[in-house]
Structures are given as C-alpha cells and as structure tokens.
Design goal:
The protein has 196 residues and is of the alpha/beta class. It has eight helices and six strands. A four-stranded parallel beta sheet has the order 4-3-5-6. Strands 1-2 form a two-stranded antiparallel ribbon.
Length: 196
Amino acid sequence: MEPLLDQLIEALRCLPGVGPKSAQRMALQLLERDREGGKRLSEVLERSMELIGRCTICRNLTEQEVCQICANDQRDKSLLCIVESPSDVIAIEQATGYRGRYFVLMGRLSPLDGIGPAELGLEQLGEQLTSNPPKEMIVATNPTVEGEATAYYLQRMAQKHEVKVSRIAHGVPLGGELEFTDQSTIAHAFSSRLSI
C-alpha cells in the first residue's frame, strides 16, 4: 500500500498549477508547521464538496438553491451577463459597478473536447430568454478561439429571441505598452477602436 504521505502529495496535485514539488511543499508545510490549518482545510473542503452546488437560475456556485446574486431584488433584471466560470463573476463583481444578473456557462464550446450547447446549459439560457428576456445580454466570454465561437453562438441565440446583445471590449490593457502587447491583441484593439 502506498504511504499516506505519498497519497497526500498526490491528492494535492489535483489543484491547478500544482506539480509534484509544490504538492510536496504543501504537504510538508501542513504536517510540519500547521496541522490545525490542515484539519480545518480538510473539514471545509469536505463540507464544500458536499454542500456547494449550482444556482438553479444562473448556474453559479452556491450552497443555496438560488445564489445571493439571483436572490437580490436590487439587481437589474434587464441586464444579463454571460460568463464562462464562477471566477469571472467574482472578477466582474470586484472590478466593476455591474448590478445586473449572470448566467455561468461552466465552460465554452469545444466540440473536440465534447463540450457542446447541452454541457453549457444553453437550453436553460434559451428558456430564460423566452420567459424572462433581458433588455440586453452582455457576452463576457474569453477572447480565445473557443470563447469567440461561444460568443458567436450566444449572439445568434440573443438575436433569435430579439434581445439586444453586446460584447465586452478586448484590447490593450490599461497601463500596458504596445511594444509588449501580442499581435492578435493589437489587431483586435485596432479593429475595435472607438471614436473619442
């Protein structure tokens, strides 16, 4: 049987960006210096795996049937922002004054990986666009090939339901310099330029 320390190190490798050395450092840190922290981590992790699911309205992660954002009557129901993941919701909430609703795809269209409209909950989104259409649907998928394909699909859905659709801007980051920006970002920023 594999030693427990090796099992712990291997289990920690399930985390993104954690290789063998990082997993080993984490395991040893917990065992040598922070056993109480390790116990708390295991308890919270176990409860989280059991109790956190998806919101029945927006598909964001939540302990409740309906997440705090969807349950908040102060949110603007005329705006619906489509994002790829719960981390995108957190980023938008922290960086902007956006007060509308969300729909979390939990991925992006990628036929080669077997991810189609059904896996992204687009049927559920279509039902929402029919029963409770927003005035504007904001597509906030990432500027990758799959993200752009997903954005195009979402644009077609919005048009079919006669919902105004917009796409978040992409381009040179604030504080960035053109000479250090990749060519595709510059090309996209240049083609999407705005009047001032």
